Amino acid sequence: RIGRLVARVALQRDDVELVAVNDPFISTDYMTYMFKYDSVHGQWKHHELKVKDEKTLLFGEKAVTVFGIRNPEDIPWAEAGADFVVESTGVFTDKDKAAAHLKGGAKKVAISAPSKDAPMFVVGVNENEYKPELDIVSNASCTTNCLAPLAKVINDRFGIVEGLMTTVHAMTATQKTVDRPSMKDWRGGRAASFNIIPSSTGAAKAVGKVLPSLNGKLTGMAFRVPTADVSVVDLTVRLEKEASYEDIQAAIKEESEGKLKGILGYTEDDVVSTDFVGDSRSSIFDAKAGLALSKNFVKL
User: Active-site positions, per UniProt (predicted)?
Assistant: First the structure.
């Protein structure tokens, strides 16, 4: 599903050209249906979508090659003119496995998940450290992309001594619609649509990979909740420098209008989760939802 949403975004941008997609499990007709109708983001209305043949989709007049190959190294990306591949299966997340795409002619691979050994980059945080010779990178997780920009602002301005994060996370595809066996995570096997399910997350620790100064200072947990989209990060930190909550608000607002514009947002509106469905920003700071216990201890 991440791949479909990446394709939706790519087709609406002028600086990205979608040339090919790969899915070994569904037909082109079914691919068209799944692309056109989305339960969260609604119906696709930007181009007329048609099947030209079993290996080609038409988005308006734009032809997109369709592959149905299970082994990444057998996908002929070069034939379709693909330079960059988004690896969004959740299966090939380490460097060696993701490198299989390079054998088919891809020049760069971006993994849409955390990776144990590929360099991780979060836009707004450490993308300036990217070097052209890197051909496989990870974009970390959605939670890390939400947490890291906020943590960077707070750490740069006030210093973080230590912190705990809780994410209240929307349902994901790995969860169960009814109670089913889940040998590695017994709670994760419980029905997603009517339970609050405590879960582990490596998102807070991953911040230490993109912000080395915070390595070992953050950890956290997750609650999976019965919502379809939009998640919350709750960051509780001890600060090195004393700061009022108003000082923190001002710092985040300034960054959201400056270097982090379009990445980190700021709102004082009385918003709820569905107000952010489809928002392109990585992280939106809810100024009214946070609080301070003292000038060194805050919840954001």
Answer: 142 (nucleophile)
